[in-house]
Design goal:
The chain is of the alpha/beta class. It is built from seven helices and ten strands. The protein is globular. The protein binds adenosine-5'-triphosphate.
Length: 231
């Protein structure tokens, strides 16, 4: 755990339920999940395909609504927010790295990474410096001017990671952030996330199948059929 970690719960999840569909064909993706993640803690969520990892991350980040239960992020009751409120959450302290990258096709790597800083009205000189630092950290100095269609899948993922970290979020939510990366790039991205957790006291909630990422986590939560099982 980072030196910032202290009992200061950034994420509090209580008895969370989420289903898709209704009637006999309904899928109960989350069946009463509860846990807490502290400031500066890197929590890995593991479990078989279909165990509910993406559903859990999406509800915590406000992309999907829970059927029942409560999620609080940095003191905000996410489950009580309407759609606008949930969108606002992601501009304000919660960053998400999605499985499909979520980059803007028309923008260069530099512009994509700088987007959250633009939204927060960072002065341009400071913004440029932060973006350059992040692109360097993810090993993409030479690709700053490239648009997503000029980048490989691994490079797009690294841009997405840099963008998610740009505005020093309180909470980073990442769905298999190294899933589509080769071993070396995956290690670099994991080290980057671990480093940010250490340096900035970010709380990170990640789903992963990667043993190295699991080893780097402060805590591992095991999901099985929508329930947390003993670690
Ligand atoms: N939009 C949806 N409509 C219907 N069922 C869904 C939907 N999203 C997820 N599910 C179902 O909910 C369950 C949990 O899915 P989820 O994507 O959360 O699992 P996961 O652990 O993230 O899987 P993976 O590791 O394959 O990404 C699965 O049975 C899945 O088929």
């Amino acid at each position: 755990m980072s030196r910032h970690a202290r009992p200061d719960p950034v994420v509090v999840v209580e008895d969370l339920h989420r289903s898709y569909g209704s009637g006999p064909t309904a899928v109960h993706a989350l069946r009463g999940v509860s846990f807490t993640a502290q400031r500066g803690e890197l929590v890995a969520i593991v479990g078989r395909s279909g165990s509910g990892k993406t559903s859990l991350l999406n509800v915590v980040a406000g992309l999907e609504q829970a059927d029942a239960g409560r999620v609080s992020v940095a003191g905000t009751d996410v489950t009580a927010l309407d759609e606008d409120g949930r969108d606002g959450l992601r501009g304000d302290g919660v960053s998400m790295i999605l499985q499909g990258f979520g980059l803007v096709a028309e923008l260069s790597a530099t512009e994509n990474v700088g987007l959250p800083l633009r939204l927060q009205r960072w002065p341009s000189a400071r913004r440029e410096q932060r973006v350059a630092t992040l692109l360097n950290l993810v090993g993409l100095d030479g690709h700053a001017a490239h648009r997503p269609d000029e980048l490989s899948g691994g490079q797009m993922q690294r841009v997405a990671v840099a963008r998610a970290l740009a505005a020093s979020p309180t909470l980073l939510v990442a769905d298999e952030p190294t899933g589509q990366l080769d071993t070396d790039t995956g290690l670099a991205v994991m080290a980057l996330i671990r480093g940010v957790v250490e340096a900035e006291g970010t709380t990170a909630l990640l789903s992963t199948h990667d043993p190295v990422m699991i080893a780097l986590a402060d805590r591992v939560l095991h999901l099985e059929d929508g329930r947390l099982t003993g670690a």
